[in-house]
Specification:
mainly alpha, 70% helix, 2 domains, 463 residues, 0% strand
Amino acid sequence: MNKIMSLIKKYKWDLIIYLIPFISFGFMLYIYYPGIFNYDVFAQLAQIKNNSFNTAHPFISTFYLMIFNKLFVIKSAVALFQIIWFSILWCMICHYNRKKESKLVLVLQIIVTVLMSFNPIISTSIISSNKDTLFLLIFMTICFLLQKIIDKKFNADFKLYIALAFFLVFFRNVRHNGLYTNLVFIPILLLVMIVYLFKNNKKIIIIFSMSLCVFSFLFKLPNKIFNVYEIDEGINGPGALKALQLEGYLYNNQLLTEKEVKTLSKYVSMESLSAYSYNYTFQDLMLSVEKTEYYGNHIDEFLHDSIMIALNHKRDSIKFYHISSTIVWDIVVPDNSIHNYLWLWIDVQNTPKEYKYINKNTSLFKFVDINLNKSINNHNVIALFYSPATYMYLSILLSIAFIILKKKEVLIITIFNLINVLIISISIPIQDARYLLNNFGLFYLLVIIFISTLNFRNKCEKN
C-alpha cells in the first residue's frame, strides 16, 4: 500500500493528466452508452454475427471489433479500450515532453489537455467503434514514436523502431488510404534514416525494414484464417466515384466536348450522370448513376479516360478539386454542403436492438445532444472546434515555428499527416470530418512538443 501511495505521489501530475480525458470521454460514453455507431460499424457487426467476412471494410478493422465482441460481454468494450488507450498515450506524451519539472510547462499541459478533452469532435470520436477512431489512435501513436526517434537523431533503441514498424503496418491495414500514405511516407522516412544512420548504424535500417516485412506478413494471416471474401470495389471504389463527381461537374456546366461526351457514354448513362453525380458533398446519390457493363469490366480504361478529360480541363478540374474537398481546405462549411461534423448517429435506421441507447430519453442526454447538434449550425463554432482544415493550418504554422527553433526534424511528423491529407482529398468522394481526425491529433501533439521548447528556452536564459 505504501508503495502504491508513493507512486501516486511521485506521478500525481501524470495521473491527473491521464484522468482528465478518461473522465471526459467516460462521461460522453455514459451519455451515449454503449457508444456511437454508424452504418459502417453495423455492417461490420453483421459480418461478425454471421461469421461471414469480406473486404468491403478492411478486415483488420473488423477483426479488431470482433476481438472485443467475442471476448467481452460489455457492448461498450471497444469504446472503453479506446478511452484507456488515448488517455495512457496522452499521459505518456505529456510526461515525455515535460522532461524536467517546470510549473509553467505543467500548467500549460493541463490547459491543453482540458481543451482537447472537451473538444466535441474528439470526445464523440473516441467513443465511436468506427475504424476512423482506430486510425486516429494508431496515427497518434506513430507520431509519438517518431518524436522519440527524432529526438535521438534517429539513433534510437531497436524497440522503438520495431514498435514503429508494427503501428505503420497496422495503420496501412485499418483504412484503404493508409496503404497509399505508407507507400509515400515510408520511402521518405527510410531516406532520412539513411542520411542520419548509414555511416554509423546501418543495423537500425535493416531491423526496421525487416520488421516492416514481418508485420506485413503477420497482418495478412487473419484474412487467411477467417476465409475473408475479397471484394473488388471497382465501379463503386473511391477513385471511380471521385471521377464521376468531376465528370458530373463538367457535364452539368456544359464544359465537355462532344468527343468527351461520346467517350463517357461508353461507361455511364449521361442522363443519370446529370441527375446524380454532380453532388460532390455526399456519395450515396452517385451510386445511382447507371454504369454500363463496359464500365464495370474496364474500370482501368475508365479511370485513364477520366484523367485525360481532367487534363483537358485543367482550370475547371482544379476548381472542382477545391470545391469537392472543402473539408480539407476550408475552415468554414459552405451553407449548401452536406458534412457530417459530429458522429451522433443515434437514429440510424435498422439499428440492432441490442445497441439501443439506454440513456436516450434522459434529460442529460437531451441537453448534451441538442446543444452539440445546435453547435454545428454556427460557422464560428465549426471553424474553432470541428474543422479539420483549421487544425491542419495550425499544425503547419507550428512546424514553421519548430524550423525557426532549429527543431526542423519535427517536420517529418507533419509531412506524414500532409501525405494522408493529400491522398484523402483526391480519393474520398464524401466530405466527413472523421476521415481527417488525424489533423486534430497532430495539432495537440505538436502543441505539447512546442510547450516543451518553452522549458528549454527558460533553461538557456538561466545559463
